[in-house]
């Protein structure tokens, strides 16, 4: 059983006709989404700030972030997106999932829609 992937579209909220679509690894260990910088720049997104992120190997890195609309599984969410290196795999973080009421079923590693969105 592998980790789930989902096709998602990232849109520039100021110019919704500008978008990029890709296959994202669903990463419940990641708070925010991550997309290679060049795809974000191609749709007119620029850094809005920087944050220090702790990676899976325990190292810490200061990385640029931006915001965008992310559409997946028929839902749209405003998300913080880390502007990553060119070779990075796009990640869909837990904040985007939980914001629209979708979680990963731990038994079969499939995405499942909850009957509601949690507010607590």
Verbal overview:
The chain is mainly β. It has one domain: Acid Proteases (Cathepsin D, subunit A, domain 1, Beta Barrel). It is built from two helices and nine strands. The protein has helices at residues 37-42, 94-99, and strands at 5-12, 15-27, 33-36, 49-54, 60-72, 75-84, 91-93, 102-105, 110-113. The strands form two sheets. Strands 1, 2, 3, 4, 5, 6 and 7 form a seven-stranded mixed β-sheet that branches. Strand 5 (60-72) and strand 6 form a beta hairpin. The longest helix has 6 residues, at 37-42. The chain is globular and about 35 Å long. The mean pLDDT is 93.
Short description:
The chain has one domain: Acid Proteases (Cathepsin D, subunit A, domain 1, Beta Barrel).
Number of structurally distinct domains: 1
Give the SSE order as H and E letters: EEEHEEEEHEE
Mind telling me the C-alpha Rg?
14 Å
Q: What is the terminal-to-terminal distance?
A: 31 Å
Helical stretch tally: 2
Which CATH-level-2 architecture? Beta Barrel
